[in-house]
Amino acid sequence: MIQAKAYANHSPTDLLKPFVINRRSPKPNDIVIEIAYCGICHSDIHTARGEWGPTAYPFVPGHEIVGKVIEVGKKVKRFKRGDLAGVGCFVDSCGKCANCKSNEQQFCDHTAFTYNSTELDKVTPTYGGYSSHITIKDQYAYKIKKGLPLDRVAPLLCAGITTYSPLKRFKTKKGSKVGVVGLGGLGHMAVKIAKAMGAEVTVFSTSPGKEQDAKKLGAKNFILTSNPDNFVPYEGKLDLIIDTVSAQHDFSLYMSTLKKAGTHVLVGASPEPNHVEAMALIFGRKSLTGSLIGGLKETQEMLDFCAKKKVLADIELVPASRINEAYDRTVRGQVKYRFVIDAKTL
Amino acid sequence: MIQAKAYANHSPTDLLKPFVINRRSPKPNDIVIEIAYCGICHSDIHTARGEWGPTAYPFVPGHEIVGKVIEVGKKVKRFKRGDLAGVGCFVDSCGKCANCKSNEQQFCDHTAFTYNSTELDKVTPTYGGYSSHITIKDQYAYKIKKGLPLDRVAPLLCAGITTYSPLKRFKTKKGSKVGVVGLGGLGHMAVKIAKAMGAEVTVFSTSPGKEQDAKKLGAKNFILTSNPDNFVPYEGKLDLIIDTVSAQHDFSLYMSTLKKAGTHVLVGASPEPNHVEAMALIFGRKSLTGSLIGGLKETQEMLDFCAKKKVLADIELVPASRINEAYDRTVRGQVKYRFVIDAKTL
Hints:
The structure is a homodimer. Chain A is an alpha/beta fold. Helices cover 23% and strands 28% of the residues of chain A. In chain A, strands 3, 4, 5, 8, 9, 17 and 18 form a seven-stranded mixed sheet that branches. In chain A, strands 12-11-10-13-14-16 form a six-stranded parallel sheet. In chain A, strands 1-2 form a two-stranded antiparallel ribbon. The first copy, chain A, is globular, with a radius of gyration of 20 Å.
């Protein structure tokens, strides 16, 4: 058993505080990672606060994890001591179902998510990356290339794959016209990845102040969404929209900017139902769909792509003592664009 | 000029009455069709009553047209006198744009729809199939095989292609599991065509009385939608849903019956926006999309498929004098499943 330092909360209204958890000693196929950095994802906050259904407390958040391999089980071939490794939103899955076999482990009925879940035994709770160490089956960890600023790699494990997966699925390439709704943690990654794939990017935002930022990140166009007239010049122009907004909004207006057979992909989830007009889908045969992180193979592919293209998150590094402040600022949208916890400070 | 008998109305509140229209004498690429039958589509009623934006009066509805070719222009090769021909929802398009070139004339920016539209000159009004004759470019008419009950073929020109197109697009085949929402004119065609493609069909309806009818038409399962519990046994079971309902409804519940990556296709359009939950799309990576009739090539393919598989509409044949009564009964859902006008009675 490995005693690990962590941060946890114990009820929906509780702040996160220092906490000690046990990580298992490595089995033959496990690796132990000494965590260097962990990103703060909005999902961490929703779950900590019990906003997405029941949360199992004590709750240790974090699924944007990077660090160094310090122990390897005797059957492990993919990693050796001293390698860099990442952990994303899940740490295990059944490995046998059609979803696992097609490398879409995120849709397995038995996925062990990185936090607020259990290991495959359905009993042992999983604890996230706001901790000093994690033990994980080597097949569920990702290889991270050396020589990159590791703190800026961490957010790729959720924000990166969440936006990369639909961009890839809809074959984004040089010349593609991609819209990105919302310029937060997910949105800024969507802009960078789409741009790196060769797309011309249009950002939709409610904040006029974000125009300059959007363009600095690589966007060509900016639509201020508070005035519906601003959509008109973009009618029928886009191939794909990546919608990262998790507040209720009417999709129809955004879909007017899609070309025939274009697709509007939701990666942000508002808890309330959203509006959509049937005519916005029927004329132009457009689609509205969703996307949920990515499987093992695609996540590794994304990490390799980002390493090659030098795509990294824009972050604000914080010590563990400032996690609760970072939560409040994330909820208010006051971060450019992702808080990352320095695990040395836990 | 050919004087044709027709039925028209002159304002949104007006009943349809006998009216005389002029059809052009055939140009070198035209054919003249003596109309035998014309289906009554719900769109006819919406347009006659001005419910879908402004209608140009006098208005002659009808876009489910079948009849006999009685004259051919001198350059026409596809038809000869005495052949059977059909006309669907459009009578012309630019022929030059990407949509026309990819045989999706329904999405051309200049499509001349069969009624409440104009010819390509943007001046000459188009009049629909509640009339004794129609003149049309031969390339925009469909070949109808002889030996079929022609009155039961008419509804294929709109209800048939509207449901065939998405069934085809999503590769419905033997063993596919297809849901059909609503059992009216469109719904009953969706059941028959899906079944003819080899699918197992599940009908969703608000009316308990329709269960027996659904099964008679070829459905295997029936979900009475008034009770959400009835959806539960079908969770994750369907590949595709064809949604023919044009009243407002929440799509999320229906989407729960889709498999991973399944698709819910709207072919009915409610005027009010509908609800959809982001989570219904994100978990299982499901899609919501729309479909609008079909292009020339696909419509001909559908007619040939239906002829081969003996798929015909279930209809109630009415004389022209009963058009207004048929409208009222269609709105009340009191028809199994399509009224067809006998054009001899105009």
